[in-house]
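Hi all, posting the design record for the shared folder.

TITLE: backbone redesign
STEP: 1 of 1
STRUCTURE INPUT:
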């Protein structure tokens, strides 16, 4: 029998992008997991229930029913580095945070997603373990240009490259000649090239590193704004030269915003994301020796943060993601053996937050004039469009996938180890009081998370840019 979900606050969006709340219901097909009908009056709901005596309404009262959120920047690290993270724990964490789809980055797994064979390996590992839907980025590294087009044909959402060392040997950074070769290959395809936009510090005339590596200021000076500015200028120049969708990941410096605005004004195919840590944390409040705050590019000043919020408001920036990038406690906190605990220059650079993105954003955005519609625009619609999922996800509308986030915006909670679902618990948000609680997460019409608990086993699907794996065939990707 089909499923019915009701609430006094269901967020709908029309074809012109206009949002409105209704007091009504959503009828979902139990066989396809798609939305069959939107019921806008209690009379419609009563008529449906009267004609389907066995049907039960799952009523969420005053909690909001939002489209399931999408995080297009998650490092899952499996296979190869499952002591860092894995498909089961990462997707459980995402589910607990109201996210119904994540997209895995191509590096930190072994092997990286830089060939068709490696993509198949990753999909085979992921398929039986994912609690949310999962898509995949491919990678661009020196010399793998002959692999790019076949990975497009087999469904990667796009490709990521590093313009500076990535931190792992198996995913080397690219040079300008490498980029031009790759962009020649990508022209004419419905795909995207995403850039970790920092150049090497030696090219920027950065300040000499201070002698105390436990001071956050030391790390901040080791990755100056100019590293991003020069890289972003190069990306914008390339986006004008090649007919390729270009995307800048995890923008940190507001000093690059004029460059981005100028490029967008010229009609270039450029999108830009920023991250929850840049919008929540600032360098003035990072304690020395607290390496759980380390990421690349780094967390910058409070004034810089304000400018990022303004760029979200004026739509210079297109989406907000977690850049969930975990590692072991030994690498992140340097707590084992003879490690130099608190050394920002030695610790792993990455912040774990896939579970808390919605609440982090909601806690900070209200005082800046943002609404729940902005949350959906930046944490759902933007990522869906980037990854090519916007025709099946990101809206509550007939024919779309029945992926929902049930959200109570007025409740609060405290981040603690007990509620964290991701594998390694080190996070700069520990102990933070956040606004907005995810009451439930619904995946393809089925309750997958509710009241703090995962419901049942893995229900996620592999998502491909050129479609999705069949619900009926286990091995739907023909390699």
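Okay, here is what came back for every position:
SEQUENCE:
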């Amino acid at each position: 029998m089909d499923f019915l979900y009701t609430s006094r606050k269901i967020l709908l969006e029309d074809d012109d992008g206009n949002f409105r709340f209704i007091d009504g219901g959503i009828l979902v097909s139990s066989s396809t997991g798609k939305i069959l009908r939107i019921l806008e009056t209690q009379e419609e709901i009563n008529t449906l229930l009267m004609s389907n005596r066995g049907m039960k309404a799952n009523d969420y009262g005053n909690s909001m029913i939002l489209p399931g959120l999408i995080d297009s920047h998650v490092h899952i690290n499996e296979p190869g580095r499952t002591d860092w993270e894995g498909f089961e724990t990462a997707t459980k964490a995402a589910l607990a945070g109201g996210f119904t789809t994540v997209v895995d980055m191509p590096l930190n797994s072994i092997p990286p997603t830089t060939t068709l064979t490696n993509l198949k390996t990753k999909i085979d590992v992921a398929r039986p373990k994912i609690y949310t839907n999962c898509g995949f980025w491919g990678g661009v590294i020196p010399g793998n240009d002959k692999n790019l087009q076949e990975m497009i044909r087999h469904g990667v959402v796009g490709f990521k490259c590093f313009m500076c060392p990535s931190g792992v040997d198996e995913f080397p950074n690219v040079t300008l000649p490498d980029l031009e070769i790759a962009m020649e290959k990508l022209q004419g395809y419905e795909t995207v090239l995403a850039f970790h936009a920092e150049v090497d510090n030696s090219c920027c005339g950065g300040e000499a590193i201070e002698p105390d590596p436990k001071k956050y200021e030391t790390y901040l000076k080791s990755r100056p704004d100019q590293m991003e500015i020069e890289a972003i200028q190069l990306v914008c120049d390339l986006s004008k030269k090649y007919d390729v969708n270009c995307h800048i990941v995890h923008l940190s410096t507001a000093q690059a915003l004029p460059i981005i605005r100028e490029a967008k004004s010229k009609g270039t195919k450029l999108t830009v994301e920023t991250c929850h840590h840049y919008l929540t944390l600032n360098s003035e409040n990072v304690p020395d020796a607290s390496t759980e705050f380390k990421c690349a590019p780094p967390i910058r000043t409070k004034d810089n943060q304000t400018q990022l919020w303004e760029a979200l408001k004026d739509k210079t920036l297109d989406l907000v993601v977690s850049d969930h990038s975990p590692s072991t406690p030994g690498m992140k906190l340097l707590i084992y053996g003879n490690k130099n605990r608190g050394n920002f220059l030695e610790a792993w650079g990455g912040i774990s937050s896939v579970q808390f993105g919605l609440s982090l954003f909601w806690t900070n955005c209200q005082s800046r004039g943002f609404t729940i519609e902005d949350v959906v625009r930046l944490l759902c619609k933007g990522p869906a469009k980037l990854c090519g999922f916007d025709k099946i996800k990101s809206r509550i509308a007939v024919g779309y996938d029945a992926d929902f986030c049930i959200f109570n915006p007025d409740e609060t909670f405290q981040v603690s180890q007990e509620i964290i679902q991701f594998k390694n618990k080190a996070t700069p948000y520990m102990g933070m009081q956040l606004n907005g609680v995810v009451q439930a997460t619904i995946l393809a019409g089925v309750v997958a998370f509710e009241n703090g608990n995962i419901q049942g086993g893995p229900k996620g699907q592999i998502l491909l840019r050129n479609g999705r794996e069949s619900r009926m065939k286990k091995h739907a990707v023909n390699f």
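COMMENT: The longest strand covers residues 3-13.
Let me know if anyone wants the other runs.
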